[in-house]
Amino acid sequence: MNNACPSFFKACCIQAQRGGSESYYAAGYELARHLADILEDDADREAFSKKIDIAFNEKDEKQSRELLLKVLQQHLPACIKLVPEKSQLTTFADGFLKCLEDGNSEIA
After folding, report:
1. Fewest CB within 10 A of the end CB: N or C in the chain?
2. Model pTM score
3. E runs forming strands in 1-107
């Protein structure tokens, strides 16, 4: 588990709170994009990656989002606390999963 929350992610969440062109979708996308830099060690990265793969490959969209959030709450709780609950299963999760789909994350 990593209790740190990178400053770039905090800034993304502040922008999303303010509204405008940035949203929690962008925050989710950027968190996914920088995961390799955030996770502390190779063992943590490997375990996290396996769990993210399971969530990403889940066919049911709602189940995929729920699995993803469970993994993030377990491994990056300080980051998830910055995202309002109403946005976690929607825009934030969609942005995170889109980054994985685009192949822009070194984790999954």
Report:
1. N
2. 0.91
3. none
Segment 9-43, tens digit of pLDDT: 999 999 999 987 789 999 999 999 998 888 877 67
- Cα–Cα nearest to 65, from 55, 57, 54: 55
Angle value at C-alpha 9, between 62 and 88, nearest 5 degrees: 20
Q: What is the H or E stretch that residue 53 is in?
A: helix 42-57
Residue 107 falls inside a structural domain: no
Report the candidate in 58, 7, 39 with the shortest Cα–Cα distance to residue 105.
Answer: 39
Total domains in the fold of the chain? 1
Tell me whether residue 1 is in a domain.
no
Identify whether the C-beta of residue 71 lies closer than 8 Å to the C-beta of residue 51. yes
Domain region containing 64: 7-102
Q: Which of 54, 24, 52 is nearest to 38 (CA)?
A: 52
